[in-house]
Amino acid sequence: MKRSDPSQITLLDLVSQKVCERCGGTILAPTVRGVPRGSCHCPSAAEAEVKMVRGKPKDCCWKVIAAYERDYPDAEVAKKRGASSVNRGSRVALHCETCTARLEYTGKWIREAGA
User: Fold this and answer.
1) Are the C-beta atoms of residues 111 and 56 closer than 8 Å to each other?
2) Which residues are CB-contacts of 17 (< 8 A; sequence separation ≥ 6)?
3) In Å, how far are 16, 36, 58, 59, 105 from 6, measured between CA atoms?
4) What secondary structure letter does DSSP report for 28?
5) Where do the domains of the chain lie?
6) What pLDDT, on the 0 to 100 scale, is given for residue 33?
7) What pLDDT does 45 receive?
8) Contacts of 1 (CB under 8 A, 6+ apart)
9) Which residues of the chain have pLDDT under 50?
10) Alpha-carbon gap, residue 19 to 21, rounded angstroms
11) Would you tell me how many other CB atoms lie within 10 Å of the CB of residue 76?
């Protein structure tokens, strides 16, 4: 069967295994939802890790924090409950669209952004 589109997956592509040149692991076709399969876990160029840098919030971040504390009536209760939590997902976290940073309250506001 001849391909009409180079990005089109054929049955042979789904059945055949490819071998990673770096680690020698197998690379199988991804699942329907895009989850990679096989024994190769080398990071691809698209999945390159971004180093996160933590520090003090910038001026644009303080505007987001002020809006949160002004508009959300239970902000102090949520911050108090989240700051004492060991689970990071229970903490109060905001997103600054200007600098695309994550703002997290851990007793004080911390800015986390990609380097």
Assistant:
1) yes
2) 26, 27, 28, 38
3) 17, 20, 46, 48, 48
4) B
5) 1-48, 52-114
6) 66
7) 46
8) 10
9) 45-46
10) 6
11) 10
